[in-house]
Amino acid sequence: MKIIAGIILFNPDISRLNRNIAILLEQVDSVLLVNNASINFSEKCLLIDDRIKIIDNEENKGIAYALNQMLDYALNNSYFWLVTLDQDSIPPINMISVYKKHIEAHDVGIICPRIFDVNQKIDLGGACDGIWIKNPEDVITSGSCICIDKAIKIGGFDEKLFIDFVDTDFQKRMLDAGGMIYRCNNVVLMHEIGRITTHSLLGFKIVCTNHNYIRRYYQVRNRLYYKQKYYGGQALWIEMIRLILGTIKIVCFEKEKIKKILSTIKGFVDYKKLNEQKVSSKWSNS
């Protein structure tokens, strides 16, 4: 059963990238790099191995577009499973060998690792070897092993999201279509979310991710769109409260306050416009 690993690149740390590729080549049949208009990347920087494939994009069209390019390449080259990784994530050396056991044992759509948050030192796992995931927000793209056939059937990734909630939306559609998501707790992926800082306010511990103002826009816009799309008005009101609290955190503790507040307002205004846009995935029927 052929497995390909895919990494989306945007101005990567070349040394870490080569380390990731070397680890992956010991485990999968090929590694596909999708370069989203990086200014510091060229093929000359890479390890020499004909199992490394490259797609060069002249502009950055977002995470979802690049993930769909991976699916398309994998489908056209007779791969059955796609392992997706962030450029900064170091894959465990046992990742694919453990995944293969569950590919053979279960009819699953996605197999994912346990996540260790290196900033907060939080292990998002459990005591058992694995668990079936019901909440799509419990899974991230990095480290996930995706059944290509099932991914195509649900329409691939929603390109209008660009970044943020691309993975959550995909996993929600996978679950709704009857696909199963299995987390291997004995495969641990070190992951870093933003630049975490902790603060105290009125005796409460406050955690800030310190994402930049551009990411703030997509986080607000896409979260509101996602919640309204799948859960309706009540969930949307809960998100409005979360949005207000998040904005208070920015005002109190984060830098670039004005830019982030303006991005928050723009994200709130723009989220409804996503409903009017058609999904550009070639496999979507919507």
How would you characterize the overall build of this protein?
Strands 1, 2, 3, 4, 5, 6, 7, 8 and 9 form a nine-stranded mixed sheet that branches. A two-stranded antiparallel ribbon has the order 10-11. The chain has seven helices and eleven strands. The two termini are 31 Å apart. It is 38% helix and 22% strand. It has two domains: 189 residues, Spore Coat Polysaccharide Biosynthesis Protein SpsA, Chain A; 80 residues, no CATH class. Helix 6 packs across helix 7. Helix 1 links the parallel strand 1 and strand 2. 38% of the residues are buried. By secondary structure, the protein is α/β, with parallel strands linked by helices.
The structural class is alpha/beta
- Taking pLDDT < 50 over at least 5 consecutive residues as the criterion, the unreliable ranges are none
The chain-level mean pLDDT equals 88
Number of domains: 2
CATH class of the largest domain: Alpha Beta
Helix content: 25-40%
Order of helices and strands: EHEEHEHEEEEHHEEEHH
What is the CATH architecture assignment of the largest domain?
Alpha-Beta Complex
Tally of alpha and pi helices: 7
CATH superfamily of the largest domain: Spore Coat Polysaccharide Biosynthesis Protein SpsA, Chain A
InterPro entries: Glyco_trans_2-like, Nucleotide-diphossugar_trans
GO molecular function, one term: glycosyltransferase activity
Domain Glycosyltransferase 2-like: 10-124
Pfam families: Glycos_transf_2 (PF00535)
